[in-house]
Design a protein that fits this description.
Blueprint lengths: L33 H88 L9
């Protein structure tokens, strides 16, 4: 068996080293245009940094507006809780008044039954004889 030999493509062509001053097929050193390439890279980098700064500002604005929203919601919740507590106190007072009135009415009812029993049984001051 013989060895496989690659005989085509870029590996078969002689190597060129343009950074060592060799010329390419077109007769120009591609590193002569390196200033233009670096200018392009610089512009890309500046655009990327500007986009990053805008993203940071946007993130800060979203965070700050989110904090303001949370603070507003917290204040709304505090007011709602205070209002709820006030209404609970009012309801408790009304319930106590109703309970007191109900208890007084029941007490009066029991008292009237007691008075009625006394009147019927004769214990109300006159003697009852069987």
């Amino acid at each position: 068996m013989g060895e496989a030999v690659y005989s085509g493509g870029w590996a078969a062509s002689p190597r060129r080293y343009p950074w060592k001053g060799e010329r390419t097929v077109a007769g120009k050193n591609p590193y002569d245009s390196s200033a233009t390439i670096w200018d392009s890279y610089r512009e890309i980098l500046e655009g990327t940094l500007a986009a990053r700064e805008r993203n940071v500002e946007l993130t800060l604005n979203v965070f700050e507006s989110g904090m303001e929203t949370l603070e507003a919601q917290a204040e709304f919740n505090r007011r709602a809780v205070r209002e709820l507590a006030r209404r609970m106190r009012e309801q408790r007072e009304v319930f106590r008044a109703i309970s007191r009135d109900s208890t007084d009415a029941y007490d009066d009812f029991l008292g009237s039954l007691s008075d009625y029993y006394k009147d019927v049984s004769g214990e109300g001051g006159r003697e009852h004889r069987p």
